[in-house]
Design a protein that fits this description.
Radius of gyration: 23 Å
CATH topology of the domain at 111-268: Rossmann fold
Shape: globular
Strand content: 5-15%
Helix content: 40-55%
Number of helices: 24
Largest sheet: 7 strands, mixed
CATH class of the domain at 111-268: Alpha Beta
Structural class: alpha/beta
Length: 551
C-alpha cells in the first residue's frame, strides 16, 4: 500500500495552479487580505484590489477583536467568527489560538448549542458535506464530490442528540464544524484535511420540520435496519474515498452510539468522542484530583448521576484504569454506581440498558441522596443534560462525607450544567474540587482564589486524533485512551492544583495536544497498529506536522 504523508505546505494552499487576482482573495485558505506584501500583490496580480496600507497579522487581529467587541450577543460573535473563517482561514485560526480562553466558548460550547438551535436561521455559507437518506446507493459518489482527496479527519453526526439539546436534525451540522475547528486550533491538524459531515436521516423534532427555513429533510427520522444499513454504506464509502481518514462519531443517540462504536471500532479507524473522548477527559480529571485529595485510584468510590453514553463511557475507562491499579474487572465495576431518573440502577430492575448492566448493584433502588448517604462516594460525576440536579443538599452531603469533595458537572452547554461553580464552592464552604463541561469564572471565597476546571473534550480528542493520523494507525485501542488520560493529567502542575484546577490552562492546549498525540502514537507502535515506520524522534516528527496559521 502506498502511504501519503503530511507535506510541510499542503499542495492545496499554494501551488502553480493556485488562483491569482480576485479569485485569490475569495479563497479562504490563500487569502491574507490586507496582509499581502507589496511583492505578493505584484506576484498574485492583486494591485488595486486592496487598500494600499499593508497590515501585519497582529494588526488584523486587533481589527477582528474590535469588531467582535461591538457585538452585543455571543451568537453574533459566533456568526462573525464563522464569516471570518469563510474568508481568511489563517487569520481565524490565529485569533482562535492566541485568544483560546475567550474564543473557545464562542466557537464551541456553550455558544455552539444556540448556533445549532438557530442553524437554519443564521446560515450564511455552506461548509462540509450533507449526506441524506435519499443518497442511499450513491454515498461514495457524494463523498467523491468533496474537492480535496487528502482527508484525514471526519467528524460526523446524525443530529439526534446534540449536546443536551436533543434532536436538532440537520441543524446539528454546527457540531462537526466546531469540533474540526478545535482539531485545527488545538492540535494543528491542517484545515484541508478536515471534513465535517451531516448524516441527515430526518428528525423527530416536529417544530423543526414545520420551520419554513429548516434546511434538512422534512421527514421522520430513519430507524432500525434501514438506518444501520445507511451507516454501513457510509463507513464503507469512506474507506474507499478517504482511506487515511479517522471517523469521529459525534452526538448520536446513546443506543446508536454504542452499537456503531461496537460495530466499527475493530474494523476501521474510528472513535466516539461522547463516549471515549469524554471518558479520557474525566479520567484525567480524576487522576489529577487525587493529587489534591490524597486518595488512591483503587480506593475510590464514584457515583454517576445519569447513565447515558457519556457516563458509562467514563465508567468503562475508569474500570480499565482500576484494573491496571490491581483490581479485578468485577471489583472495579463494584466501585462505580449509577443513578438515573428511576434511582440507583440495581440488579432486579427491569430493562437495564446493555451499557449499564455491568454496573448494577444488589439491593433496593435508592434515591440520589439516599445513594450518597449509603455509598459515601469521594467523586460525584454528572452527565444528565439536566440543570440544577446537584442541589444544595447534594453538595452539602458530599462535603459532610469528604474534606475535599470532587464534583464534576459535565453536561453541556452551561445552561445544562448540574450545578454552577459558585454553587459547588459556596455549598461546600469552598472545599469542593470542581470541574464542568462548559466554562465558569474563577471565584474568590474567603479570600482564596478558586479555579473551576473545564472538563472540555477539547483537551483530549484533538491530540488523540492527531496521534492516530500521525502514525496512520489502523485502529484506536482502549489503551490509547488510557494513555491519553495519563498524559493529560501529567500536564497539570502544582500551582494549578493549589487553586483547585485539575486541567492545564487552555493557553497550553497545543503542548497538551502534542503530549497526548505522542503518547497515543507511541502506544500504536507498541501495539503494532501503526502503518508507517516509527521516526527516531516521534514527538519532534509530530510537532513538525502541526499547522501554523501565521503568515
Amino acid at each position: 500500500m502506498k502511504h501519503s504523508t503530511n507535506p510541510p505546505i499542503p499542495a492545496c494552499i499554494d501551488h502553480k495552479d493556485a488562483p491569482f487576482g480576485y479569485l485569490r482573495l475569495g479563497n479562504a485558505a490563500l487569502n491574507k487580505s490586507t496582509a499581502f506584501t507589496q511583492e505578493e500583490r505584484i506576484r498574485y496580480k492583486l494591485e488595486g484590489l486592496l487598500p494600499p496600507a499593508i497590515s501585519t497579522q497582529k494588526e488584523q487581529q486587533t481589527r477582528v477583536l474590535e469588531n467582535m467587541a461591538r457585538k452585543r450577543y455571543d451568537i453574533e460573535r459566533y456568526i462573525f467568527l464563522q464569516a471570518l473563517l469563510g474568508r481568511n482561514e489563517r487569520l481565524f485560526y490565529k485569533v482562535l489560538l492566541d485568544h483560546i480562553d475567550n474564543m473557545m466558548p464562542l466557537v464551541y460550547t456553550p455558544t455552539v448549542g444556540q448556533a445549532c438551535q438557530e442553524f437554519a436561521h443564521i446560515f450564511r455559507q455552506t461548509r462540509g458535506l450533507y449526506i441524506t437518506a435519499e443518497n442511499r446507493g450513491s454515498i461514495k459518489e457524494v463523498l467523491a464530490n468533496w474537492p480535496i482527496e487528502d482527508v484525514r479527519l471526519i467528524v460526523v453526526t446524525d443530529g439526534e442528540r446534540i449536546l443536551g439539546l436533543g434532536d436538532l436534525g440537520a441543524n446539528g451540522m454546527g457540531i462537526p464544524i466546531g469540533k474540526l475547528s478545535l482539531y485545527v486550533a488545538c492540535a494543528g491538524v491542517y484545515p484541508h484535511q478536515c471534513l465535517p459531515i451531516m448524516l441527515d436521516v430526518g428528525t423527530k423534532n416536529e417544530t423543526l420540520r414545520e420551520d419554513p427555513l429548516y434546511l434538512g429533510l422534512r421527514q421522520p427520522r430513519l430507524q432500525g435496519e434501514d438506518y444501520y444499513s445507511l451507516i454501513e454504506e457510509f463507513v464503507n464509502a469512506v474507506q474507499k474515498v478517504f482511506p487515511h481518514a479517522l471517523i469521529q462519531f459525534e452526538d448520536f443517540l446513546t443506543p446508536n452510539a454504542y452499537r456503531l462504536l461496537n460495530t466499527y471500532r475493530k474494523r476501521v479507524l474510528c472513535f466516539n468522542d461522547d463516549i471515549q473522548g469524554t471518558a479520557t477527559v474525566a479520567l484525567a480529571g480524576v487522576l489529577a484530583s487525587n493529587r489534591i485529595t490524597g486518595h488512591r485510584l483503587k480506593d475510590l468510590r464514584i457515583l454517576f448521576l445519569g447513565a447515558g453514553s457519556a457516563a458509562t463511557g467514563i465508567a468503562d475507562l475508569i474500570v480499565l484504569a482500576l484494573q491496571e491499579a490491581g483490581l479485578s474487572e468485577s471489583e472495579a465495576q463494584d466501585r462505580l454506581y449509577f443513578v438515573d431518573r428511576k434511582g440507583l440502577i440495581v440488579e432486579n430492575r427491569q430493562h437495564v440498558a446493555p451499557h449499564s448492566q455491568p454496573y448494577t448493584h444488589e439491593g433496593p433502588s435508592l434515591s440520589f441522596t439516599e445513594t450518597i448517604k449509603k455509598v459515601k462516594p469521594q467523586i460525584l460525576i454528572g452527565a444528565t443534560g439536566s440543570p440544577d440536579t446537584f442541589t444544595q443538599e447534594v453538595i452539602q452531603l458530599m462535603a459532610q462525607i469528604n474534606d475535599r469533595p470532587v464534583i464534576f458537572a459535565l453536561s453541556n452547554p452551561t445552561s445544562k450544567a448540574e450545578c454552577t461553580a459558585e454553587q459547588a464552592y459556596t455549598w461546600s464552604d469552598g472545599r469542593a474540587v470542581f470541574a464542568s463541561g462548559s466554562p465558569f469564572d474563577k471565584m474568590i471565597y474567603n479570600g482564596k482564589t478558586l479555579t473551576p476546571g473545564q472538563g472540555n473534550n477539547a483537551y483530549a480528542f484533538p491530540g488523540i486524533g492527531l496521534g492516530a493520523i500521525a502514525c496512520e494507525s489502523r485502529l484506536i485501542s482502549n489503551d490509547m485512551f488510557l494513555t491519553a488520560a495519563r498524559a493529560l493529567a501529567e500536564k497539570v502542575d502544582q500551582e494549578d492544583l493549589d487553586t483547585g484546577l485539575i486541567y492545564p490552562p487552555l493557553t497550553e492546549i497545543r503542548e497538551v495536544s502534542l503530549a497526548i498525540a505522542t503518547a497515543v502514537a507511541e502506544k500504536a507502535y507498541q501495539q503494532g497498529l501503526a502503518r508507517i515506520p516509527r521516526p527516531e524522534d516521534l514527538s519532534s516528527k509530530i510537532k513538525g506536522m502541526m499547522y501554523d496559521p501565521c503568515y
